[in-house]
Amino acid sequence: MNELLVVRNLVKRYGGLTATDGLDLTVRSGELHALIGPNGAGKTTIMGQLAGEIRPDSGEINFDGQAITRWSIPRRALAGIARSYQIVQLVEGFSVQENVMLMVQARLGHSFRPWQPVLRQREIVEPALRALDSVGLADRAREDVMTLAHGEHRQLELAMVLAMSPRLLLLDEPLAGMSQAESAVLVDLLGRLKRQYTILLVEHDMQAVFALADQVSVLVYGKAICSGAPAQVRADPAVRKAYLGDDDALARRAA
Ligand SMILES: Nc1ncnc2c1ncn2[C@@H]1O[C@H](COP(=O)(O)OP(=O)(O)OP(=O)(O)O)[C@@H](O)[C@H]1O
């Protein structure tokens, strides 16, 4: 597999606090790579730097062979980097389908035809319906977005990201706040999507991480202390110690 995302020696400081401390990270095409670590380890800060929302102090981000470190958010989005957030961002009063269509419209930029009713524009409608279908929400397309349950909102948010035809999905805690049943649906969905997309996943649910990930990187105080296959990471004594300061905690959480 070729290297799609390569991060070298990335540094981000907030005053005296180094949130990203010389981070190296490689994500290969087609893999689901999980980024785990205790609260405050700097996971969200990295996602922000990859999406272009946070400017690193130094270091380099390469995407598909290009140095994108100084690229704007829209330029990265056009290149295929799509980010989901811990907080779902939906437009109330719009239907499920319309929420996804807004994403498609944004991706198409000026190329859509503003003088035609949006619902008749195939280049907007079809990708939106395809994305809804791939997350299992096609039959809810016409409903008001607020009729969806919390777990379904997460599925919808995923559809909105997929509608951008991403080459790299940055998913920030997609399982946060979900019931067990809702989590199971989303884990199943991610398991199916991971064959089609390259995914960098930040997630606290260790059971989900170890069920889904091809590669796991463990972040502590802004540094990757270990990166490798799930079994290798789980067995790493430094990971067990650093992650929660308790040798058995990681094993218990991943069980
Ligand atoms: N805008 C900011 N200004 C100052 N400090 C910040 C800012 N954003 C994050 N931090 C600090 O940087 C560190 C890393 O935060 P970050 O949110 O990236 O961690 P995280 O691993 O995503 O945590 P969590 O798992 O709780 O979401 C924390 O100590 C946090 O308080």
From TrEMBL:
Keyword list, A-Z: ATP-binding, Cell membrane, Membrane, Nucleotide-binding, Transport
Point out the signal peptide segment: none
- MF GO annotations: ATP binding; ATP hydrolysis activity
Query: CDD domains from the xrefs?
Result: ABC_Mj1267_LivG_branched (cd03219)
Q: Which Gene3D superfamilies match?
A: P-loop containing nucleotide triphosphate hydrolases
* Domain ABC transporter per the UniProt entry, residue ranges: 5-246
For whether the record's keyword set contains Transport, the answer is yes
Entry keyword annotation includes ATP-binding: yes
Q: Which GO terms describe its cellular component?
A: plasma membrane
SMART domains, sorted:
AAA
Q: Under which name does UniProt file this protein?
A: ABC transporter ATP-binding protein
Its source organism is Candidimonas nitroreducens
Q: Highest lineage ranks of the organism?
A: Bacteria, Pseudomonadati, Pseudomonadota, Betaproteobacteria, Burkholderiales
